[in-house]
Q: What sequence folds into this?
């Protein structure tokens, strides 16, 4: 099996300078590997640092200790010493991240927002928009909303825009932070089905899913993220 | 790939005061680098040195020309530096009036840089001017009007068209949206975002507005007292700032 992601001895501590330099250790001793075609479920109580871990894997939070290696084409890229340009290149073609909330851009229509990852890779506007429309239709977002900016959409609608935006790019590695949290049962089934299809097509998934049914339906393995004990 | 702009150990003093010290970075084609920090942190002094307007006391600014030649900006003869500024570079001022010629028409403002490049064909210059007015979402029929008759947002769009008409590869922007109403700002930001991606521009963007930085910049430099205290991907710096000053800056933003 092709290893897509390898995490070794990852640790993360936040230092809050405006609060007198308080140190908050969040993660320590995180070790796992994820292969193509697997879905690793991050388990653990809320506050254990699961979202922090996902953000660190995406390069959004800085990697301070340990190693994160991601397969990018035929190379493994080490996040800790990757240049900003190579992290951006990873995000363009290899790693997708579905956050809990959509960050909207003023005035940009839903269709363009979803087409953007393809446009960034040089796909023509016409083709990118056609594929964006397919994904939005698949996710059941009414066509009358496609040309509006998603700022005024409901939570569930925004979440589906977010998912379409990540799925369209067919990233080999998908990081998912509660992708089904604000969806109703029908839409949750659709998204579970899409995640399974991506995994069957060879993508590696790492996700946080609070819903036990979703976990059972998409997960192939789980990894327990343990809350760190406060050092005395 | 060679960086378009290579900056090393750049410094400037005004009398006893250090305005900028030891700034270095590489900028590649298609990259937007945001420089953030409060007023007095040296952002504007740095931008003026990068763009050939203020001779540094220390360090180098190197630019890779279209033919691949590496040019040391402050070792170039004055006329070559000026030619670069008029053709391969753009500079968008905070106040559109500082970047426009107010006494001549919108069309002449756009055409001027083409003429500086040696274009003499009146009809073609006018066609280009009309094309650029439309690209920055301005009505083409206002081509013969003077910029003084335009609103602030339109003046700013005209300034952008004037800069981009020569297809520069590097554009400096000094608080391009700061003097506009919020509603006009959003539209201009969207326009800039599209143009930068479409033309694969390299941009050095000075802003004190972290939301503008988040929207436009790929990477950020955080400046304090003339020095870069933190550098990284925009979302890293804004979501996981490391330096005490970056943390203070990010945590001080009011949430609307």
A:
């Amino acid at each position: 099996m092709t290893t897509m992601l390898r995490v070794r001895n990852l640790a993360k501590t936040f230092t809050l300078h405006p609060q007198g330099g308080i140190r908050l250790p969040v993660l320590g001793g995180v070790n796992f590997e994820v292969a193509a075609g697997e879905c690793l479920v991050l388990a653990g109580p809320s506050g254990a640092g699961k979202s922090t871990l996902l953000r660190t894997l995406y390069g959004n939070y800085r990697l301070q200790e340990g190693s994160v290696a991601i397969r990018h084409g035929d190379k493994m890229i080490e996040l800790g010493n990757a240049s900003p340009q190579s992290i951006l290149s990873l995000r363009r073609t290899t790693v997708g991240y579905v956050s809990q909330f959509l960050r909207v851009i003023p005035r940009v229509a839903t269709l363009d927002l979803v087409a953007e990852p393809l446009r960034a890779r040089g796909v023509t506007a016409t083709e990118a928009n056609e594929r964006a429309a397919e994904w939005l239709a698949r996710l059941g977002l009414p066509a009358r909303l496609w040309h509006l900016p998603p700022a005024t959409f409901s939570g569930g609608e925004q979440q589906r825009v977010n998912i379409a935006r990540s799925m369209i790019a067919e990233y080999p590695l998908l990081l998912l932070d509660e992708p089904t949290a604000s969806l109703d049962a029908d839409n949750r089934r659709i998204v579970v089905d899409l995640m399974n299809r991506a995994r069957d097509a060879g993508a590696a998934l790492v996700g946080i899913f609070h819903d036990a049914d979703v976990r059972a339906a998409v997960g192939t393995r789980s990894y327990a993220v343990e809350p760190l004990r406060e050092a005395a | 790939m060679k960086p378009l702009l290579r900056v090393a150990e750049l410094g400037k003093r005004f009398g006893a005061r250090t305005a900028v010290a030891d700034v270095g970075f590489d900028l590649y084609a298609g990259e937007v680098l945001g420089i953030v920090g409060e007023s007095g942190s040296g952002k504007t002094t740095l931008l003026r040195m990068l763009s050939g307007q203020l001779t540094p006391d220390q360090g180098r600014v190197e630019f890779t020309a279209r033919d691949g030649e590496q040019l040391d900006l402050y070792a170039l003869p004055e006329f070559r530096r000026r030619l670069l500024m008029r053709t391969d570079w753009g500079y968008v001022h905070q106040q559109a009036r500082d970047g426009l010629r107010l006494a001549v028409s919108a069309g002449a403002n756009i055409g001027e840089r083409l003429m500086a490049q040696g274009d003499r064909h009146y009809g073609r210059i006018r066609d280009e001017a009309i094309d650029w007015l439309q690209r920055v979402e301005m009505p083409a029929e206002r081509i013969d009007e003077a910029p003084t008759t335009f609103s602030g947002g339109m003046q700013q769009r005209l300034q952008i068209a004037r800069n981009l008409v020569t297809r520069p590869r590097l554009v400096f922007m000094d608080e391009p949206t700061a003097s506009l109403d919020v509603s006009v700002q959003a539209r201009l930001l969207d326009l800039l975002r599209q143009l930068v991606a479409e033309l694969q521009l390299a941009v050095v963007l000075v802003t004190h507005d972290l939301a503008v930085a988040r929207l436009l910049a790929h990477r950020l430099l955080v400046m304090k007292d003339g020095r870069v205290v933190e550098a990284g991907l925009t979302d890293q710096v804004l979501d996981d700032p490391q330096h005490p000053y970056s943390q203070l800056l990010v945590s001080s933003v009011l949430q609307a």
Remarks:
- The radius of gyration of chain A is 18 Å.
- Chain A touches chain B through 20 residues (CB under 8 Å).
